[in-house]
Amino acid sequence: MILTNSDSIAGDMYLKTVLIHGFKTFAGSTQMEMCRDFNIVLSQDFSLTYDLLYAIDWAFRNDSEEQEVSEVISCGSDGKPLVDFAEIELCFGVTGSDAQDYVCKKRISVDHENSEGKGKVTYSIDDKVVSRYEYASVKKLIPLVFAGIIMENANMYAEDIKQQCANRQTVIATTDKSIISVLKPAHLIGLVKKDGITEVHLLSNAD
User: Fold this and answer.
1) Residue pair 109/133 in contact by the 8 Å Cβ criterion
2) What does the alpha-carbon distance between residue 99 and residue 22 come to, in Å, rounded to a whole number?
3) Which helix (H) or strand (E) segment is 207 a member of?
4) Which of 50, 106, 187, 203 is most buried, by the most CB atoms less than 10 A from its CB?
C-alpha cells in the first residue's frame, strides 16, 4: 500500500500524532507519536501494520455519509461490532513555527438496533464539525505522508524507499525486522496486541 499526495505542502506540515479508536483490529484507543522524518512501525502481527496504514488512508477519504460498518469498525467473530464507533484523529504540526496544530477527525458511528449494517460518517477539523465537502477542500492543504507496507525482504526496497521519501515525512509499517538496519536512523515504534488491546512501545527515537 503506497499513499502519496503530490499537491502537499512539502516541509511545512507534518503528522505529529495518530489516534485510532475502535478501528478494525484496534479495538481500544491507540496513540502513536511521529517524528518529522522516518517512522518505522514494526509488529509481528501483519493485521496491525496493515490496519494502521489503512486507518491513515481512511481518515483522508471523502466518503459518503454512510458506510458499511464491517469495513472499518472492530467486529467480533460473529461479525457484530464490538464498539459503538470508530474514529481516526490525525494531528498535524507546522515545522519551525509556533502556529496552532491542525486536528482532523473522521468518525463512523453505529446504531446497533437500526444500523442495517451501515454507520454514519462525520468529519471535524479543529473540533468543528464540517461537511464532507468542506473536509475535502481543507484536507488538500494537509500533506499526506508517504506510507508503505513491507512484509519481508526489506533490503530489496531500501533504495526505492530512500528515493521516494527524500525530504518527506515517511511512515513504513512492516513485519520485517531487517528494515531497522537498512533504514537508519529512524523513529521506531513497536506494536503488540495483548488481551485484545494494542500496546505501543517506542523502541528508538531518531529525534
Assistant:
1) no
2) 30
3) none
4) 106
What's the chain's length in residues?
207
Question: What is the widest separation between alpha-carbon atoms in the chain?
Answer: 51
DSSP string for residues in 83-135: SSEEEEEEEEEETT--PPPEEEEEEEE--TTT-TTEEEEEEEETTEEE-HHHH
Q: Are 146 and 173 in contact (CB under 8 A)?
A: no
Q: Is 90 exposed, middle or buried (0-12, 13-18, 19+ CB in 10 A)?
A: buried
pTM of the model: 0.83
What are the pLDDT tens digits along the chain (207 aa)?
Answer: 333 343 444 347 788 999 999 999 898 899 999 988 888 899 988 889 889 989 988 988 877 778 888 788 887 766 677 788 999 999 988 777 677 788 889 999 987 666 677 888 999 988 899 988 888 876 676 666 666 777 667 777 777 777 777 777 888 888 888 777 777 667 888 998 877 778 888 887 655
Q: What angle do CA 62, 125, 14 make, to 5 degrees?
A: 90
